[in-house]
Write a structure and sequence with these properties.
71% of the residues lie in helices and 0% in strands. The chain is an all-alpha fold. Helix 4 packs antiparallel against helix 10 (168-197) and helix 7 runs antiparallel to helix 10. One of its GO terms (cellular component) is membrane.
Length: 313
């Protein structure tokens, strides 16, 4: 990914568009050829979907629908959808970078290389320092920080960076690095939360559905961004209102913030396991004892509230 990120721009600068497309088409073709080497057992007619398999599929569909209707799954999914569906002005900014700032394909490839490295850096930071932070806190702060950092693009759009003595190329590289790290840190909790929300038995199906919802939100985000770009009169040559577009799109990401309580404060799977362990633990403590028995077992404070046991002492 790091190599292709840079070569994509370099090849476009050295060769025609047609040759670049032909080169990129070679790699999927190689994958198709490699698919013939995969060993698998042929499926006979007797192994096709039986009545039992069909009923199993229907049962799983019912389980998925039942899971989606639960507030513990529906509300976090709705928050993520609303956040990811807010409009963005990436397309307009791309034309600004190429037509106004004059960035060449080779430099755009260099920017993609930097963002690829930044994405890996974001993964490392999340894994090292943030993986134990509650979903509500990390996603809530991600909304605020991402919106604030997105405003730094205004410095490039208004050419304020030149007044500060920072070249357009260097500012673009640094800005892309910071925004990508922040974006990756903000997106990873979405993946983790989606995986943790999936109940047993339908993990793969529900996770695929949640990812489809996220992709739908991203599609809606681009469409809303395009509509907003049209309303503001921003084109591939007219960037007078680009600053307003960037301001609106960044501020719009704050709209779902009042709904942050829809997110679980703790790990949903951990809470479920803890609840199951507590139930089994209470059973073990009182096993073999008559109902209403008073015991001085040291384990009792974990079952009876502390203020009761302390009052006795």
């Amino acid at each position: 990914g790091l190599i292709t990120a840079y070569l994509s721009g370099l090849l476009l600068e050295r060769f025609s568009n047609q040759i670049v497309f032909e080169i990129t088409a070679i790699f999927p073709f190689i994958v198709c050829l490699a698919a013939w080497l995969i060993a698998e057992e042929p499926v006979s007619k007797n192994e096709l979907l039986s009545q039992q398999d069909q009923s199993l599929v229907k049962q799983q569909i019912k389980q998925v629908w039942k899971a989606i209707k639960q507030k513990s799954i529906f509300l976090p999914t709705a928050f993520v959808f609303l956040w990811q569906a807010t409009p963005n002005g990436d397309s307009a900014f791309f034309y600004f970078a190429t037509n106004e700032l004059g960035f060449e394909p080779e430099f755009l490839g260099r920017v993609r290389l930097v963002t690829s490295v930044a994405a890996l850096l974001g993964v490392l930071i999340y894994q090292k320092f943030l993986k134990n932070v509650s979903f509500r806190n990390i996603l809530g702060w991600s909304v605020v920080i991402s919106s604030a950092l997105g405003m730094t693009t205004l410095l490039l759009v208004t050419h304020t960076n030149r007044l500060l003595g920072i070249d357009d190329h260097w500012f673009s590289l640094g800005d892309s690095l910071i925004l990508t790290v922040a974006g990756q840190i903000a997106f990873l909790p979405i993946l983790v939360l989606s995986a943790r929300l999936c109940p047993k038995g339908i993990e793969a199906t529900l996770f695929a559905l949640l990812m489809s919802i996220v992709n739908l939100a991203n599609l809606l985000s681009h469409e809303l961004g395009s509509l907003l770009t049209h309303w503001l009169g921003v084109t591939e040559t007219n960037f007078n209102n680009l600053w307003l577009l960037i301001t609106i799109t960044n501020l719009s990401t704050l709209l779902p913030l009042p709904l942050v309580k829809w997110l679980p404060n703790n790990d949903p799977q951990a809470e479920e396991l803890e609840e199951q362990e507590n139930i089994s633990y209470v059973g073990e403590v009182y096993e073999g004892k008559a109902l209403g028995t008073v015991t001085d077992d040291a384990l009792i404070p974990d079952v009876i509230p502390e203020f009761i046991t302390n009052k006795k002492k």
